[in-house]
Design a protein that fits this description.
Elements (H helix, E strand, L loop, with lengths): L2 H10 L11 E9 L2 E2 L8 E5 L2 E2 L2 E5 L6 E8 L7 H15 L6 E7 L3 E8 L2 H9 L9 H10 L7 E7 L11 H11 L2 E7 L8 H10 L3 E4 L5 H13 L2 E5 L9 E8 L4 E3 L3 E3 L1
Parallel strand pairs: 6-7, 6-9, 9-10, 10-11
Antiparallel strand pairs: 1-2, 1-12, 1-14, 3-4, 3-13, 5-12, 7-8, 13-15
Helix pairs in contact: 1-4, 2-3, 2-7, 4-5, 5-6
Length: 276
């Protein structure tokens, strides 16, 4: 069975939740004066689900939240030569910022989605897999995002996707709305990276993916600074806050809208909601 068929079946599978014990997690970035805000406490935040204020139970910080970082890289024919070298440097820079409790994994996408490594603390094996890959084929961006949402297996970790592409989606099986629904279900945090010189800007799908999950779309002007952009993004993720709560009422299945506020204001990034 093709990857596309497997992804479609996964989307159709019914979701099951424990009605009284399901915990909702909301990953929040607060920026003030161009920098991540530090020192915030749980009482500084307010979260509303479908307009109803929730009782926040925990506030996770960098000190107690491990990261599972999935490198979701364009492996199509257009990423040959110097562009593949840029990705190797960017991946190495990101993994240098990981800690012993963190893990990394690698998915490549072209006309198909290939999982080259499972999540591991062996950074060299991830770099080795990327070095050994041969870019070819077209670009299945949407399918790869759904595959990424299904790849995580550790509930206590922050589920981080670092996505790089140098082209538009040309061969995905799934529709954009299916992709966004899968990301909302998977509780992942997507950061997308593109290079301005390649003529690629975050299109509607990338914008929706980052906005829905509470991540950011990064467009780097200078290819030589891509590695630095990856490293800075990981530092930014470590400065985020991870809020959790048990819904105040047993909500009906469907989309649950989330609103996050913080005392003192600032620019915020957080996921827009989740699907039950």
């Amino acid at each position: 069975m093709s990857v596309a068929c497997l992804l479609a079946l996964a989307l159709q599978a019914p979701l099951t939740f424990k009605s009284s014990t399901e915990v909702v997690r909301v990953d929040v970035l607060v920026m003030r004066d161009g920098r991540p805000a530090s020192g915030l406490r749980i009482e500084d935040f307010e979260v509303r689900e479908n307009g109803v204020r929730q009782n926040l139970e925990t506030l996770g910080t960098d000190a107690n939240t491990p990261i599972d970082m999935l490198l979701l890289f364009d492996g199509s024919a257009s990423v040959r030569g110097s562009r593949q070298q840029l990705l190797l440097e960017a991946a190495s820079a990101a993994m240098k910022g990981l800690r012993p409790t963190d893990r990394a994994g690698l998915l490549l996408f072209s006309h198909e989605v290939r999982r080259l490594t499972k999540f591991t603390s062996d950074w060299d094996s991830v770099i080795g897999a990327l070095k050994g890959s041969v870019p070819s084929g077209s670009t299945s961006l949407g399918d790869s995002l759904v595959a990424a949402s299904l790849a995580f297996d550790r509930t206590e970790a922050r589920r981080l996707v670092f996505l790089f592409t140098d082209g538009a989606d040309t061969s995905s099986f799934l529709q954009d709305y299916q992709v966004i629904e899968a990301l909302a279900r998977g509780n992942v945090l997507v950061y997308s990276f593109t290079l301005e010189e390649m003529g690629v800007s975050p299109g509607p799908l990338l914008k929706a993916a980052t906005e829905t999950t509470g991540g950011r779309a990064v467009t780097e002007r200078n290819p030589k600074k891509l590695a630095a952009a990856f490293r800075e993004a990981l530092e930014e993720v470590r400065a985020r806050y991870l809020l959790s709560y048990t819904p105040a009422a047993n909500p009906a299945p469907g989309w649950r809208r989330l609103e996050v506020k913080v005392k003192g204001g600032g620019r915020m990034w957080a996921r827009k909601g989740y699907a039950r």
